[in-house]
């Protein structure tokens, strides 16, 4: 008899604890609903997570919390997509305002992604010249190419750009350099991916483009130094501006794709839950 009384007391205490958990969880759920309604999605998610952590026995409230969390995720992704769409429109307008200043080279027979050049730096206008060329593809990936054809081979793999003072920037050794000849004249080219191999050369030129003079030094078995033309400095600065816009647009596309995938996932989970509830 005594054991039965103890068991009964324990049961009463357990049920009372469950009721208290459910009540407190319900109050927290109501606050989460208010946060969601006011558009404070982060707070709503924190409150729902707190229900899971603090009141594990409040099963019905936790289930309601899961449904509310799905609603929060749904609205959050829609809000994100709306924001990204508005940002893409801004970047597209910026691109449309300047893209006609560049030449897009793209052979659709074998190229999925074309490359933009500044008009003064297209190949046909620079035959036989040693200089630093800039280009950016349609994904916003910028490339500098050092082209040497001043006579004899120096087997260069890097370049250094400096101003009249002590300021300079130097590329890392190129991961992609090659040599050829044109009518017996050696031609050397080396590519540097901006932000990876260029050692800050592109940014250095942009930051100091108001300087009167830049020196360009080809670094190889022996070095060769020349003065950069003003139109080359202008070209690199202009292509850098274009690259910033194109890379920003590519990042927005990636974020849009991610948000759409999340939106589809949440929608599918909500549809599955609704279907399960009807069965």
TrEMBL record:
<keyword id="KW-0175">Coiled coil</keyword>
<protein>
    <recommendedName>
        <fullName>Lipoprotein</fullName>
    </recommendedName>
</protein>
<feature type="coiled-coil region">
    <location>
        <begin position="249"/>
        <end position="276"/>
    </location>
</feature>
